[in-house]
Design goal:
With 236 residues, this protein is of the alpha/beta class. The protein is 33% helix and 19% strand.
Length: 236
Amino acid sequence: MPSKRASSRPAASREALSAGEVWTQAVKRGVRGWLDGAEADRLYQLAAVATDPILEVGTFCGLSTAFLAAGGRQAVYAVDPCDPLLFDREQVRVAAGQDTGDLAREWWEALGLDAERIVQIRLTSTEAARSGEVPMVLGGVFVDGGHDDFNVRNDLDLWRWRVAPGGWLAMHDWGVRGEQPQPWRIRQICAEVLTGPEWDFAGATHSLAVWRRTSRPVAGRPPRVQKFEPKGEVAA
């Protein structure tokens, strides 16, 4: 399914939804995902302070996307190939053969979050970065894609360059959930990549960790990508 491009201007205004209202609707609809209430509220608060568009890497059924879109005024670019061949065992079980991209869009529309509010991009993270469909300057990036070493490092390497000074980068499944440590190396990889004076660790809410981008330039060289070229205006 082709994605819809939009400008990097703020999305259309609408009646605000609180984080509690979004959570209540998610429970009623049985929206699938691994975000808990405190983490959802943190994403909602992060979205509220974003002054540039927000990127989400790893949408699944769109639970977290709704909090990012409802919490702020900026458009949210939701990147996920929605390909069951790329799912892990638990995702396969939860999706039960359904198209997660369609499920996500139905959920967003039920909340009144239309295609101007959430730009769905059904590509892998690498494809999206090279496509020119995501703005080059982002107010926030939420990473919740593949949890293996390659994908965690790849997502960080692709997108950390685009976070504007004062913006944020959040990583899910960074720490522990309850008393159980996560089986992935996400925490170690973040410690290796998000280091130096350009990033300030802003704490963690359960397994959701957040870093703030400082005014210092990001070290190294960004990957070569296609320039973002919006194909339509989003009403302010």
